[in-house]
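Hi U.,

Before I forget, here's the chain from the pilot set. I'm dumping it here mostly so it's searchable later in email.
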Amino acid sequence: MRKLQTIVRFLFVIALFFNCNKNSTEPAETVLTSIEITPDSVRVLGGKTQQFICTAKYSDESSIIMTENVNWSVSPGTAGRIDSTGHYTAFDTSGIEIVTAMYLDKQAESIVIQTDQSSIADIDGNIYKIVQIGDQWWLAENLKVTHYRNGEAITHVTDWSNLTAGAYCAYKNDENNADTYGYLYDWAAVKDSRNIAPEGWHVPTDEEWKQLEMYLGMSQFEADDIFYRGTNEGSKLADNASLWSDGALKNNSVFGESGFSALPGGCHHFTGNFFGGMGFSAYFWSSTSAHSLNAWGRKLYDRNSEVYRYSTSIQDESSVRLVRD
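Structure:
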């Protein structure tokens, strides 16, 4: 009997060994550890949509984008709604929303700031209309701010023969012109580190101007070229026919189509110290240097429906538009 007990114990130990060894080689079970929403925070303007994506994270460090079986909800739901595929649609109102995704027993949230913003204000309290063109948001008016973002004054000049870098003026020093066309600024004011634009906005680069132009119809090759380029993009950018002299720009059928609303505010030429162009030309700065003494700019002209890209002296004074960060 004792011999039989010994054999049984031996067989049990052998079975236990093989069972433990088998368990040690089996892979651990992969389990869902969490889910994430992308983006985890976003600003959405009224009438626009935002796609949210739910990603499932697993214990083996793998992840899967979930295209079904996710329960989406939005709270409080007064500023927007979300459908079963994660598409959030903003109403024409404002508010902070929480978008929630539920998958199995896991939950994730994203913060949505929903705004009906159709205008912005500068540090002086001037209100500007804004317009979305493609993926960009632009001022639909020329800048007329007189202080940098930090509150320090931009130098006001009436006699450019004694140049003060970082300055502005009204066309022909007539403040009535500024009411309609904004102020003219030199490039030093455009590039000043104190920032001529309000928070969240900046003077467009040459590339951002090209992005605008290509959305309106230019090819990359045309956008990269200089002088007059494209076909009718200038007419699309201009507006308010009563202010423009008669010509191809305003007589084109797409005049004013983009909502950019460029006006013929003219410019000031430092060399020769004279104003010119009001009524038939619009001049705009970019924030991109062409070389040490010049920067890239844009010009619209009453006799041409295209857009003129040129390198101009940083001592000249032109209008300024802003694009959102």
